[in-house]
Amino acid sequence: SVAPETPLLVREGGKIKRTNFAELASRYGSGKYARVHFDVLSIDRNYEIKFLQASHIFRHKVSKIAEIRYEGGRLRASLSHSVIVLDEYGNLIPKKVSELSAGDLLISFQSYNFSSQSQSSRGFLPVKTVVHLLECIIGRRSVLHHFGDVGEIRTKKEAVMRILSDIGDISVSSRIQHEKFVKLVRLLRSMLSVVFIERIDVRDYDDFVYDISVPGSEMFWGGGDIPVLLHNSDERGIDTVRTSIKNFARSVPLNAPFKIIFLDEADALTHDAQSALRRTMEQYSEICRFIFSVNLSAKLIEPIQSRCAIFRFRPLSDDAIARRIRYIAEQEGLELTDEALNAIVFVANGDMRRAINTLQSAAALGMRITAEMIYEITATARPEQIEFLLRKALSGDFTTALRKLDELRDEGIFADEILAQMHRSIMRMKIPAEKKVEILNRIGETDFRIAEGANENIQLDALIAFICLISEES
Hints:
The protein is α+β, with helices and mostly antiparallel strands. It folds into five domains: 7-115 and 194-231, Beta Complex (Endonuclease - Pi-scei, Chain A, domain 1); 124-189, no CATH class; 238-305, P-loop containing nucleotide triphosphate hydrolases (Rossmann fold, 3-Layer(aba) Sandwich); 318-377, Helicase, Ruva Protein, domain 3, CATH 1.10.8; 383-473, Zinc Finger, Delta Prime, domain 3 (Up-down Bundle). The protein is built from 17 helices and 19 strands. The chain has helices at 21-28, 127-138, 140-147, 157-167, 175-189, 238-249, 271-283, 302-305, 318-332, 338-348, 352-363, 371-377, 383-394, 398-410, 415-428, 433-451, 456-473, and strands at 7-12, 15-20, 33-35, 39-43, 49-53, 56-70, 73-77, 82-86, 92-96, 105-109, 124-126, 154-156, 192-213, 219-222, 228-231, 259-264, 288-293, 335-336, 368-369. The strands form six sheets. Strands 3, 6, 7, 10 and 13 form a five-stranded antiparallel beta sheet that branches. The protein has a four-stranded antiparallel beta sheet with strand order 2-1-4-5. The protein has a four-stranded antiparallel beta sheet with strand order 9-8-15-14, with no helix packed on it. A hairpin with a 5-residue loop joins strand 14 (219-222) and strand 15 (228-231). The termini are far apart.
């Protein structure tokens, strides 16, 4: 995990901005972890730099912190945190900060252009990676002929490009050769580059450090003016299961027949971590019991589900949430208007934790809580705004509906939030069942396409156009 001042790039409502973990924590609550609603600059396994959806922000306290100074920037991280490095096979792998030393290489990127997604062959790559890939492609003797006795630990991409150019046509006869060749070419064409660590100092700290979870990638860019690639060490991986959880599970309970381990949001555990956890459950079943709370039970592997009794809880009623929020506001001396209370209930949608986090975030801005504050800090549209948008689209007024959609996007409201609110509104609206089915089906398709990486602006515009078209057909 990294220090609160660590900068990172996020995309909210289609707008890219630079922020830091301290600012994000103030918006999403000060608990151990919280759900977030933005994209963070990350990378995929093909070395393509892109924005990917983040799911949670985490924090915990540490007593020591490492200050890493590297070419172009500075990063403060806990000793257990991991950065991403390139191994000799060209794979992106995590390496703990405690294992780094001056002279090691971190991954950065060169001259990234967010608007054009342009590519560049500038920058450096680790020599061990380039040599290994070239040896697999053209043989060790040819590599020594072109590379010579390399004493450096990194080399310019242009130098590798010249070697490939000098070789000319490369005969790739095996599947392994082809895979290595493709990997090398992707590295050369990518925006990735490596930078030297100049020095590392470990200091006393005793404060919070932060992390962010990026499902499907588990990597994000953060750090100084030149960011470096970091690995989210959010305590939901296999190492945590093998150490912290297993060590506690195998300890003998005192004055009790068994111990209880409660894992909140266990569906966020990686697949490998869940597999390791299953073995721990089996091994210490006589002295330990597990309780899992999840948002989506389908994300838990079947072997764990089969060993559990499943209890499903409905969302809380609006009245229950309103009573609790009103009670908390009274105890904290907050002035909560009726409109603000209704807004919190709407935003929570049956989730008490989200309701309390929303109230806490609003209270950080002032003692008087208004509906405008609630909708703004949660990046949520007012229900009447969404209903107005849908009514105009259903009446065939495409121009007005699109203008309202643009207003919502300008307010920084995410596409997934707009779709979720459209779904809620459509379910309540009194329109013909056939038309409701068509719209809900298209909302689902749009949500899936955006989740798969489609352009959210184009998809939302197309959804509004579709609703206008079916209104003309009826």
